[in-house]
Amino acid sequence: MNYQGKVYRPWPEARSILIQTTLGCSVNTCTFCSMFDDKRFKVRDLEDVFKDIDQLRIYYPHVDSIFLIDGNVMAARTDYLLKLFDKLNTTFPECTKISMYSGLNDFRRKSINELKEIKDAGLTMAYSGLESGDRLVLDKIKKNMSPEQAIKGMEMAKEAGIQTLLSFIFGLGGRERSKEHIVATTDILNQMQPDEIAPMALAIQPGTVLEQEVKRGEFIMPTELQILQEEQYLLSHLDFNTFYWGDHGNNIVSLKGGLPHCQEGFLNKVNSAIELRAKAEDRVIQTFSW
Q1: What is the pLDDT of residue 282?
Q2: Are 128 and 104 in contact (CB under 8 A)?
Q3: 175: number of CA atoms within 13 Å, CB side?
Q4: Are 111 and 156 in contact (CB under 8 A)?
Q5: For residue range 56-93, what is the model confidence (pLDDT) as tens digits?
Q6: Which of 18-22, 188-192, 251-255, 281-285 bottoms out in mean pLDDT, i.e. has the lowest?
Q7: How many whole angstroms separate alpha carbon 113 and alpha carbon 78?
Q8: CA 252 to CA 183: how far, in whole Å?
Q9: In terms of Cα–Cα distance, which of 172, 169, 165 is closest to 192?
Q10: Is the pTM of this model over 0.90?
Q11: Where is 264: in which H helix or E strand?
């Protein structure tokens, strides 16, 4: 099968086979992101997706996990998704996990009954980008989502029984709004209580609006110390059970495990990293493109 354009999947899905269901992202305005700048959002014809599924069956005699790409697959119509899951379940009866990207607003745009149907049809996990809980940061990055909308989307996913992993970005408030960004993000996570969370350090993507803002001096990159202090605050104030995917390649400290069981140990590692950088507090974080 031939994938169209750039292809992305979350790092926890490294062993999943990828089935391109949509092209691009239904939002595609975020200033920090260039993942889908090479295509317009489109839901692929179901028959074309079915052909890819049949071809993958030939390639893979056993499939444990499937991840549906591109961005915001949940934006597709419910009847489309139900037919897709029926085909997947029929073609890969041994598969135990089917996941997809879904914007938190995508949950809001469906009814609870629709979300329950999708979950019952086979959806195991939805990956959603929160990015920040700070209203000013969300407006600045053009996320087209308010904190209230994010909370409502999560409430609906939870009511439908859909497991959700929320990602967010250390440093997205820049040097000037680091504290407000992490405090608001931690607060909203404690309200939403997602099943899993995946923090990652800010990486400036080539060709993005944010890259131009950095070059013009309109966005000042956070320091390594600020990134670590954000993670320190987060781990000191999270108060719900979740799985912590803090092992993204751009994170200063690699952490992975269940909270609260691992929380104290994680915090100790972050505190140790802060002590090592105490004398280099102005050093700007260095990260790499996704």
Answers
A1: 67
A2: yes
A3: 15
A4: no
A5: 999 999 999 999 999 899 999 999 999 999 999 999 99
A6: 281-285
A7: 10
A8: 20
A9: 165
A10: yes
A11: helix 263-276
